[in-house]
Amino acid sequence: MDWDGTLVDSTAAIAECIRAAARDMGLAVPEPARAAYVIGLGLEASLRLALPELPPSRYDAFVAHYRRHFLACEDRIRPFPGVPALLEGLRAGGYRLAVATGKSRRGLERALAASGLAPYFAATRCADETRPKPHPAMLFELMRALAEPPGATVMVGDTGHDLQMAAAAGVDAIAVESGAHPPEALRALAPRACLRDVRELPQWLASLGRFAPRPTSSRAAAACGSKSSISANARRRSSCASAGRCHGYLNRCAHVALELDWREGEFFDPDGRDLLCSTHGATYAADSGRCTGGPCGRKSLVKLKVAERDGSVYYLGCDDD
Hints:
Blueprint: H1 11-24, H2 32-37, H3 43-50, H4 59-73, H5 83-92, E1 97-101, H6 105-115, E2 121-126, H7 137-146, E3 154-157, H8 160-169, E4 172-176, H9 183-187, E5 193-195, H10 201-207, E6 232-235, H11 238-241, E7 247-250, E8 274-276, E9 283-285, E10 291-293, E11 303-309, E12 312-318
Parallel strand pairs: 1-2, 3-4, 4-5
Antiparallel strand pairs: 6-7, 7-11, 8-9, 9-10, 11-12
Helix pairs in contact: 1-4
């Protein structure tokens, strides 16, 4: 779940603090809708969109002004009516709840403590500890932490940033009209449902019996053998299979030496095109292992020597050997 504008009635306060900080610095004051639009994004993206004339060298000064205004009104920000009961009911119904927010870790911890909602959440992720929205890193990290697959996960949020993040992570999205972005903008992104506010979520879930994921297309995969500490997986893409080729890589991200998969044997992005590290969102070309995006820079996965015979893939060695 998103925090600001979804669970907590903070959209107007955040937008006004952005406007007040711009006024303090003698900048053109953005309209309320423009200031609200950037809620949930990371700091740099927010400032580029809301205050395009502000040079990066002055970002820290703007943040100091914004923080001063926000801290002055923070104790007046409250959850939307009915949210504590909503979370209690969902938790009692067996749902595991998590927060994916554009807030800083320090800001979220203050908000959780002040609202009393902390006990309801099994995990949380903030924009200052991973890639911010709409990058899918927060959702991948939460799914990994909770050992939940995309098909059993739904993102609930009030902005297009939330819905785009969900789409990038391959999970369903539920939009709520209570926050920063107008309903028509939310519906244009085709969420699974668009609710007037988050209190309608239990009724929507009940209409399905329990959250029922959309069917996903099957993906043919072949697992390589392994030896000692080497964990290898190979997958034939349709374009490679026609040429009788398959590829195998050491299950170790080139950015940080962690396993790629969020669940055993699940490595691919929502399009089934690139290998995706579930921890920090690094992506690798399936036919070369070369980094195609995220924090892996120019690095590549360690390529394994594999061969396909009679419909099975055999491990022959590793380039590290």
